[in-house]
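User: Could you check the structure of this?
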Amino acid sequence: MTDIKSIEPGSQAGSDTTLDFGNRLKIARGQLHLSQRDFAAQLDIAGSYLSEIESGKTRPGFEFFYKTSKLFKINPVYLLHGEGGVFLDTERQWYHDIDFGSLNREVHDLIWHLFNAPTVSHAMLEFFARYKYANEDFITAEIKKTREKKEKP
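Assistant: Sure, the predicted C-alpha cells are below.
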C-alpha cells in the first residue's frame, strides 16, 4: 500500500505513476509547441522544478494544476490518470486522434499552425489553390483510385 506522504503534493516521488504523470505532461507541453523553458516561464516556476516534475522526481501541488488548466487548458484528469483528452478544450486536439502514418508529427504540426498562425493559413490556402488548379487532372485521377480501393471488399 502507498504511504500517504508519497501522494502529498510536492513530495518526493519516483514511482511509475509519477513518471507516467511526467510523460503525460511532456506530451501536453509538446502539443502546445512550448519548450520546457517557455512553459516554466509562463507558469512562473523554475525550469529545474519543471524538469523534476517531468522526470518523475517530484510531484506538483494544487497551484501547478490550477495554472496548467487555466493558462493552457490542460486536463488535470489526463495528467493524473491518463484518462480523457489532453486538453479541456477538445477542439484544440481533435486531430491528434487521427493517424497520418509516417507523417503524423508533421501533419499535426501543420494543422496546429493552420489554426494558430493566420499567415500560415493564408500561405497554405494560396499554395493549395495554385497546386489544385495546375494539377487538377492528376488529383482527380488519384481521388478516383483511392475511392476504388475503398470500395473493394
